[in-house]
Amino acid sequence: DLAYEHTSEPITKSIFALHEAAHKEGIHTLALSIPPSAWQKQSPSSNKLAEEVNESLRIMAETNKDKMDYAVFPIHEFDAQSGLWSPDGLHFSPDGYAYIGEQLAPSVQKVLDKLR
Asked: How many Å apart are CA 73 and CA 67, to the nearest integer?
């Protein structure tokens, strides 16, 4: 969790373990980058941590193309005025979730097609 960790290693280790568990079952996975948030905008160290985790995920997916894809989160920056965010600055509004779903649908479909 970006609020509690000081290095990216524990975060990436946990995420990698989830993907590896799925891979052991023969399931192709999709790694999604950490989205921006108000917290990352306020905390340069958390923003840097998110960038490090995202880069590690991208590299893991690149080196495991046969069983893992990577997608960049479709919202690239926190903007409280966009209508995509809930007031807490961490979660999304209903419109935000709808936008995310629409934008990620092609990436999810690509993974689903690999399961056939």
From this structure: 19
Q: How confident is the model at residue 59 (pLDDT cuts 50, 70, 90)?
A: very high
Burial class (CB in 10 A: 0-12, 13-18, 19+), 62: exposed
CB 72 within 8 A of CB 57: no
Kindly report whether the global pTM for this prediction surpasses the value 0.90: no
Q: Which pLDDT score is estimated for 1?
A: 66
Average pLDDT for 86-111: 95
Q: For the residues of 50-113, what is the DSSP string, one character each?
A: HHHHHHHHHHHHHHTTTTEEEE--S--S--TTSSSB-TTSSSBPHHHHHHHHHHHHHHHHHHHH
Q: Are 19 and 68 in contact (CB under 8 A)?
A: yes
Q: Look up residue 97 and give its two tokens.
A: 């979730």
Q: What is residue 30's DSSP assignment?
A: E
Q: How far apart are CA 55 and CA 37, in angstroms?
A: 17
Q: Are 69 and 30 in contact (CB under 8 A)?
A: yes
